[in-house]
Amino acid sequence: MALINSIVITKLYNVYARTNEPFSVYESGIVVLNAGLFLFFITIVFVIIMSDYPSSDSNLYFLILRCGRKKWFISQMLFSFLAIMTYIGVVFAFVLIRMAPLVFVANGWSLNISDYGKQMGLLQYIPFQLYNQMPPLQALVFSIVLLWAYLQMLLGFQMLGFSCGSKKIFSVIQMVILAVGIGMVFLDIQLKWYFPQAHSILCTHYQKYFKRYYFNPYLSLALLIIVGIAFHVLAYLKFMRTDVDRLKENEL
């Protein structure tokens, strides 16, 4: 939150002080979800918070014995869904509260974006790719859905690592993929589409001046969801036939 406040929110306040023009209530959320650095930061913080997902302490055997493997697995998936929604909600609540004095409620881009975006250095936060493609409400909702699908896929990968008894190894692989993926996005090369990071950022899909996309964002959403489901299915199948004693946290 401190990084978002010191860089993003402060920047928007400085722009408002110079133009005296308010922002759309949706734009502050779009800024956070479409600047690759901040989305990477949000993702890393979430992965760190959820690093112990799914929980596998000494009570695991007794929990599974009492409720059964299937119910335990489903409960973990429900928890992951609620955790993602809570995390996104907290981030947006913080941004909206901080931006409340500077916003208006309307489904249209503010003059700060449409007229002064380049002059005020806002294009790195809300690039032309979004401004030329869709209204802000649609951009915000689509960005949130992409982020949810992306985080769900990451938790599915963690669940698979847990079920394979290699939680720590999978965590290292996950961090490497995240780092390399954001590097590909910054370099803006075609290889970025082989990493989930590029698919989670809405503005990367669209061309700058034309209403065309480099990669269909709906296909990206479908890929993130399908891969996430595949991770959970594989994790479930592995979990159902793995000895519970092998699933403790200290196991690699």
Task: Give an account of the 3D structure.
The chain has 252 residues and is mainly alpha-helical. It contains eleven helices and two strands, in the order αβααααβαααααα. The chain has helices at residues 2-19, 27-34, 36-49, 60-67, 69-99, 111-114, 128-131, 136-163, 167-187, 196-199, 217-240, and strands at 23-24, 103-104. Helix 2 (27-34) crosses helix 8 (136-163), helix 8 (136-163) runs antiparallel to helix 9 (167-187) and helix 8 (136-163) runs parallel beside helix 11 (217-240). The mean pLDDT is 83.
Name the descriptors.
two-stranded parallel sheet; 252 residues; mainly alpha; single chain
Please specify the SSE layout and strand pairing.
Layout: H1 2-19, E1 23-24, H2 27-34, H3 36-49, H4 60-67, H5 69-99, E2 103-104, H6 111-114, H7 128-131, H8 136-163, H9 167-187, H10 196-199, H11 217-240
Parallel strand pairs: 1-2
Helix pairs in contact: 2-8, 3-9, 4-5, 5-8, 8-9, 8-11
Binned, the helix content reads: 55-70%
Q: Are there runs of 5+ residues with pLDDT below 50, and where?
A: none
Strand order of the largest sheet: 1-2
Q: Helix and strand string, N-terminal first?
A: HEHHHHEHHHHHH
Residue-averaged pLDDT? 83
- What value does the Rg take, in angstroms? 20 Å
Described by strand count, sense and barrel closure, the largest sheet is: 2 strands, parallel
Distance between the termini: 32 Å
Beta-strand content estimate? under 5%
Q: Which of globular, elongated, flat, extended, rod-shaped describes the shape?
A: elongated
Determine the oligomeric state from the structure.
single chain
* SS field, number of helical segments: 11
Number of strands: 2
Structural class: mainly alpha
